[in-house]
Amino acid sequence: MVKQNVDITNLSNFHTPAKARYFYKFDWDINQLVKVIKKFQNLPKLFVSWGTNLLFAFDIFDGLVIKLTDYPVNTNYNFENYPSYFNKEIKAKFSLQDNVLEVSWFENISDVAEILFKENLSDKRKRFIGLPGTIAGAVVGNAGCFGLEIQHTFLKAEVLNLETFQVEEVPLEKASFTYRNSIFKSWKYIVLKAYFDLSSTKEKYPFEWDIQDIITFRTQKQPSGYSCGSFFKNPSRENPAWKLIEEVWLKWYKIWWAFFSEKHANFLMSDGTAKWQDLINLKNLAQDLVKHNFWIQLEPEVNIIN
Ligand SMILES: Cc1cc2nc3c(=O)[nH]c(=O)nc-3n(C[C@H](O)[C@H](O)[C@H](O)COP(=O)(O)OP(=O)(O)OC[C@H]3O[C@@H](n4cnc5c(N)ncnc54)[C@H](O)[C@@H]3O)c2cc1C
To answer: What is the fold of 3-67?
Structure first.
């Protein structure tokens, strides 16, 4: 059932106050989903899974927000507790045949990676352990951790095409993956399933850390709280965004209740009460200062929805 004027503040991990003019919680019935989308065809649409890569830069979304997962989005990630998070009960489901992993959009990518690692099915995918969010969110944004990106093992996705209203497959050749981007960001598809080749040897760079190093990195180098992870893309390996932000003295700099983390300068954060305007002002300030000082244009990695 479509609801009107719904508070969606908690659907983005920044928790900026926001409402949706129309709101629909996907109830696993594709035919019903198609009906709803057709009814609201002329309005803008916004798809939300766990909301760990979304900044709502509006007070009211004048369109239809579709929440695609059941998971409660109280994702105030507390990496100080990460070792116990690692030991939590894991419920993810997937199927694996001839090294092809088939997994539905709503599964937590970290849980899938953790099972594959613990059961000696894929050592390589341990790099995704600790990555918040769903399989779909990771595919849409070509998520990457420690030199391994979604595109390196991706085979195809099953999607609902919002122009034809058919369920179809999009293979790697048509997925147009680039740095934190893909064809799936075009708002033309809802990702329903993804297939990965676990035998693939592709990667951006080799990575030798063991699981404890990964956990230590997530706990000690990344802040807990209301963020969407790294806010800007890294312009290059020599010039990571955190370094540029530190060099323009914005580490730990605050505008009202928004700030760049003291622990990791590329983590734009809210204390839980920041308004979207505070976050956007801080983002603009960082872009201006880095451009002025280094002639480098910082590009957001987080999806900013106006
Ligand atoms: C603490 C922290 C650490 C992080 N570390 C990393 C990291 O190391 N590497 C990295 O790459 N990212 C990182 N991120 C960002 C984030 O975790 C990933 O981008 C994640 O894959 C997003 O998944 P999600 O389910 O939350 O997607 P959402 O934020 O809900 O959505 C992301 C995008 O995908 C779209 N979308 C979601 N579901 C669907 C669907 N089924 N069909 C079509 N479109 C859909 C949304 O509209 C949106 O544009 C981090 C975030 C946090 C908070």
So the answer is: 3.30.43
What averages of pLDDT result for each successive group of 10 residues across the chain (306 residues)? 96 96 93 95 95 97 94 48 56 89 93 88 91 95 97 97 96 98 97 96 93 88 92 96 98 95 96 96 98 98 97
Contact between 24 and 65 under an 8 Å Cβ cutoff? The reply is yes
- Cβ of 303 less than 6 Å from ligand 1: yes
What pLDDT, in 10s, does the model give residues 267-296? 999 999 999 999 999 999 999 999 999 999
Closest Cα to atom 51, ligand 1: which residue?
A: 229
Look up the pTM and report it.
0.95
Mutate which of 46, 52, 108, 207 for ligand 1 pocket (most atoms within 8 A of beta carbon): 52
How big is the CA angle at 60 (ends 59 and 63), to the nearest 5 degrees?
150
- Does ligand 1 lie within 6 Å of residue 145's CB atom? yes
Q: Is 132 in the pocket of ligand 1 (CB under 6 A)?
A: yes
Do 53 and 228 contact (CB within 8 A), yes or no? yes
Class of domain 223-305: alpha beta
Q: Which fold has domain 80-197?
A: 3.30.465
